[in-house]
Amino acid sequence: MSHLPICGIVVYLTAAFLTPLLYKAHRRVAEGVFLASTLSNPVLQTLLILELSSNSWKPIVYTLGAAGPYEWTYPIRIVLEVDALSAFMALIVTSISAAVALFSIGYMEEDGLQKYYTLFLLLDAGMLGMVLTGDLFNLYVFLEITSISSYALVAFRKHQWEAVEAGMKYMIMGSLASTIILVSIALLYGEYGTLTMAQLGWQYRHHPTGMARVALAGLLAGFLMKGGIVPVHMWLADAHPAAPSTISALLSGLVIKVGIYSAARIAYSVFWMGTDVRLLGWLVVVVGAASIIVGNLLAGFQRDIKRLLAYSSIGQVGYVVTGLGIALIPGVNPEASRAALDGALFHLLNHAVLKAMLFLSVGAIVHSLGTRDIGYMGGIAKRMPLTSAVVLLGAMGIIGAPPLNGFVSKWMLYEATAIFNPIIGAIAVLGTAFSTVAYGRLFYALLGRESRLVADRSPRDPGLWMSVPMIFLAAASVLFGILPRIPVVGLVRPARAALLSPGSYTSWLKVAGGILSSPNLPPAGQPISVFGSWVPAVFLLVFAISIAFFLLIRNLSASGVRTVGEGVKAFLSGEDERDFEALQLPGTSVVWGFAEAVKSLVNALKREHSGDLTVYLFWLIFLYAVLILLWGGA
Amino acid sequence: MMVYLTAFALIMLGIAGMLFRRNLLKIIMALSVADSGAYLLLIAIGYRSGGTAPILTGYEGGPMVDPLPQALVLTAIVIGVCVLIMAVSLVVNVYRHYGTLDVSELRRLRG
């Protein structure tokens, strides 16, 4: 048996506890170990994917210790179960954290680094364990490793009130969610006497009980909270901006995705086969659509740039959850259901790349300016061209502008949602409109007139350590946009197939009854229009032509036009000429007309984000209760 | 049966405490109570009436209690203690910055 599945986790955990010791010897040694462990892990996960694909994506089951005391095939020990979806997630987790690790060498210079390295590596180990494990309690343990290290990292700069308050709220909410998850796991164990997820799925298929449904409601409520889905998303907008920017990149890019992954794994691989999950699927679609609206809308009304990105994460994860929910519902057009799942998984990958890139580059700007207010970032594009280019590229990707990767996955989701239900389709498009408003302000701010703060600070592009990861992520985003077939055919489709065939997840169990067949599995076959009518080459051509056109017009226009003086008097109706500084349009005012139109909705939403922890906890219990009442009792 | 009821009563009590108490330390204590309920539930699930300790050497027949939930609870307790320590140390920092432990005062981040 190959030991590849456990290797990544071992590397992270070993390095996590080695770095503080080595730091005592010399800082550079600890840094070396930190980098070696984070950079080698993507290679390990790629090897794992190659091993999987060479074996036609059959799940690899790795037992920790002997398979059983009496040569049983009945699983007793903890198992890691790696199928295409796990491997896909593991590759995302390790690659993004490698890029972030490289960036943090330069970025975190001034903070206490030895604690940072350990927490960073523990966070990685927890996330990798969560996606690779096949044991429910093991999932809980890794979830807690992830959660505790992220609480600590959010409150890392504990001399700032913001970090402390955000960390406190995140911690209390997260711990309540973890307790709900633990209780649900206990209920499942009491019901079926096993913790292996594959076996739980098998048992549930044959003996579905009401208690198991209550347990699923708890697991879903808990993991949706960890994923920052409306209505339990309030902690996210506080916690992600308060953390150091590298950690924000990890939290927004990976931690919430891992929560979504766990919810999907439990809903699809464990519970999908046993019952009609129509109602559950609809619930997931509704919370996903609500996240799209709330997250993207509120992103447009933030002055704090990192808070903008955090709200936008809620909205973008809403797309992923909507796609996952559509595929849960039986009886949907199978092509739409496959496209929804493909789109959701590809968007998960794209959002991880884009949000990591955005948080890193925005972090570099915030670091050099010392403020997070968009209003003070005017004209920074001239001083920090590389960083600003990466920020704007990421913004275009998140909006879903061709030819970037965000467009491809959103296109798949538009198609799928439109076929599934026109209202959900309209919400998906509306979410993009809202995020265009949010990120459009960034364009005005960064490319606009130079602000006094920028002129005073005269910021510069960061050094090599910080530039390389940004460029790497930007290149990935462009590559996935122009050649989407590489990731979609290579990674996303096998992962989707793994989710849609829970029978293969449990097929290694040698129990009476043999391999399970799934009742609501869409028939096999390639979807005909996964990319829809989008041909990247055409859009590139249009893009190139419009740029050429722009340059042409620019060269044709007369140069040396006077903007001030007697000539402009005719346009001022006799008024005095204004001071240009006074005329400066702040980034928030650009979308004034839009803001007026949705003012009442935004004010209502802002009232709900009151900052009161008790209210947030009520929402979590409310979601739990709704899930139990609607689904658990039926 | 009694044990199950106690476990659920503890969980409910904990959740109610988290929802209706305003003092941060009391909220954390309530969280700890809810956790204890979950531990008790796990232990109760593994219990067999009249069972002996699950040790294979010198086994003389008869029912044994399920050892797995005990291992789980041990792990969960360790995790719970970690969370508790983190939470209390954060509470210290909250008091430093805000001068109060009332959660309704902890509302600078909003909107």
Summarize, please.
The complex is a heterodimer of chains A (634) and B (111). With 634 residues, chain A is mainly alpha-helical.
What does this structure look like?
The complex is a heterodimer of chains A (634) and B (111). Chain A is mainly α and 634 residues long. Chain A has helices spanning 4-25, 27-54, 84-107, 113-132, 136-154, 161-192, 197-206, 210-226, 234-242, 245-270, 278-299, 305-328, 334-369, 380-383, 385-399, 405-420, 422-447, 452-457, 464-482, 485-500, 502-506, 536-556, 580-583, 592-597, 599-608, 613-632, and strands at residues 60-63, 79-82. Chain A has a two-stranded antiparallel sheet. In chain A, α4 runs antiparallel to α5. Chain B has one domain (2-105): Helix Hairpins (Orthogonal Bundle), CATH 1.10.287. Chain B has helices at 2-20, 24-46, 67-98.
Count the domains of chain B.
1
Average of the residue pLDDT scores of chain A: 83
Q: What structural category do the secondary elements of chain A indicate?
A: mainly alpha
Most extensive interface: pair and counts? A-B, 43 and 43 residues
CATH A-level architecture of chain B: Orthogonal Bundle
- Shape call of chain B: elongated
What is the overall pLDDT average of chain B? 88
